[in-house]
Write a structure and sequence with these properties.
Number of domains: 3
Structural class: alpha/beta
Number of helices: 18
Shape: globular
Radius of gyration: 23 Å
Distance between the termini: 55 Å
């Protein structure tokens, strides 16, 4: 990292001065630790505050940086009063009263992604969307490696952006959430996409319009826009004068699907890239993910053959349409990452035959009536669990047989009784997991364990 260049840029854009600025990192965890490492390298004065008594990362911080002030168990009023700059972790809403008061007193809010953007001098590809962003980010990372690029992959997925910084990197691929984008204004990605927009995080965003507006910030700058023309909200984000590549699984676009002699192909213009059947992933929505990744790869000059070779080997991510087992002819699929309606709808639409759906959890304020049409069309029956199971049953209004389970073991047992050979049982909750589980990974692991117990 060129420290002189970066500190000059931080001074220009944020009035961040190594000698006089007092930075408060709000929220610890992996992002907070990454910010601490960056500020320490840049030699800024900073402190950290977290509302939790024992925030994740506290032990690492104390071990690596014992001299850094750490205030826990609530937001320390003195720390906010003296701060000239706040770097707020994505998990903390910007409308918290302590943050609002500090900003009113003159403090500037800076995001870790803006720090990253100012530090980088090679291309960035930025990916967001309600669903599929982790898959597309990982796909593109694999494609770049296959094409011989020294690539670093992270952001909202895996390694925090600031921890990716290295002199040897030729390309950065970032997954970004709406929480990260809402506080980011300097990102100028070489290529960016909003994969899709569906109801999510409405417990943090005022409404769908605000949520979509935060997602759209990924297109700030001058880089190439990759647009999903199957999604009307995303298609409406086009900016005049910008270079655009489109993708679709429904109609012709720059990257699309075409059927020839009973075989579907991934296409780029008139060029056949590969048969869809060579993509080793469950669900038709993964064809859209592959097309988006290909478009982004072309945008930054990756070799097409290398990208297709990477796609043929791509096995998908854990808890995202992951094939767990086939037991007595029944296919069991873990899509625990489907924490919102759009993800569940996409999973269901990927099936031609009706499935037994396991769903439910914390709906995060979403209207479950939006889930109802897809369930009616694609589900033979549903097994419901968690805090908002009743909301889904109410939305279905008796159109599909519904069963209730108290936990994952019971849900799997009920589904096993309902499923016949040749059918699929799909865990795609359409809800967050924190009402019953540590996270969606824990929920998916419990599903896998319960399914494998059926063998015994």
């Amino acid at each position: 990292m060129n420290k002189t260049r970066i500190t000059a840029a931080l001074a220009e854009h944020f009035d961040l001065d190594v000698l006089t600025s007092k930075v408060l990192v709000v929220g610890l965890g992996v992002t907070g630790i990454s910010v601490a490492r960056f500020l320490q390298k840049m030699e800024f004065k900073f402190a950290i505050t977290d509302s939790r008594d024992k925030p994740p990362g506290a032990e690492v911080l104390l071990e690596q940086y014992p001299d850094i002030p750490l205030f826990t168990g609530g937001f320390d009023e003195y720390a906010f009063n003296v701060a000239t700059h706040l770097i707020v972790s994505p998990g903390i809403a910007l409308n918290h009263k302590a943050i609002i008061k500090a900003v009113a007193n003159g403090a500037k809010v800076v995001s870790d992604i803006d720090l990253f953007a100012l530090a980088v001098d090679v291309p960035i590809v930025a990916i967001t969307g309600s669903n599929g962003k982790s898959t597309v980010t990982t796909m593109l990372g694999d494609m770049a490696k296959a094409a011989g690029k020294r690539v670093a992959v992270g952001g909202n997925l895996g390694t925090p952006a600031l921890d990716l910084l290295a002199e040897t990197v030729e390309l950065y691929v970032l997954e970004l959430s709406s929480f990260q984008l809402e506080r980011t204004r300097l990102l100028n990605a070489a290529a960016a996409t909003v994969l899709n927009v569906s109801a999510d995080h409405l417990d943090r965003h005022a409404d769908m319009a605000e949520y979509a507006a935060e997602k759209q910030k990924i297109f700030n700058g001058t880089g190439l826009m990759v647009i999903n023309i199957d999604d009307a909200v995303v298609d409406g984000m086009r900016k005049e004068g910008r270079e655009i590549l489109t993708f679709s699984i429904k109609t012709k676009a720059d990257f699309y699907l075409q059927k020839t002699d009973d075989t579907e192909y991934l296409m780029h213009g008139s060029e056949i890239l590969m048969p869809l059947s060579a993509l080793p992933l469950e669900g038709r929505h993964n064809a859209a993910n592959a097309l988006a990744a290909l478009a982004l790869g072309v945008a930054v000059g990756l070799d097409t053959q290398a990208m297709c070779a990477a796609l043929r080997k791509f096995k998908g991510l854990a808890h995202r349409m992951q094939r767990v087992a086939q037991i007595r002819g029944v296919n069991w699929v873990n899509d625990s990452k489907a924490t919102n309606i759009g993800a569940c709808v996409a999973a269901l639409q990927g099936y031609e035959q009706k499935v037994i759906l396991i769903a439910g959890g914390d709906a995060k304020g979403a209207d479950m009536a939006e889930l109802s049409p897809a369930i009616k069309e694609k589900a033979k029956s549903v097994v419901l669990m968690g805090k908002d199971a009743g909301l889904i049953e109410k939305a279905l209004d008796g159109s599909v047989p519904a069963y209730f389970a108290s936990d994952m073991n019971e849900a799997v047992q009920i589904a096993a009784r309902l499923a016949k050979a040749g059918e699929s049982v799909l865990l795609s909750p359409a809800c967050a997991s924190l009402d019953q589980y540590k996270n969606y990974q824990d929920r998916g692991d419990k599903f896998t364990k319960a399914v494998l117990a059926l063998v015994a």
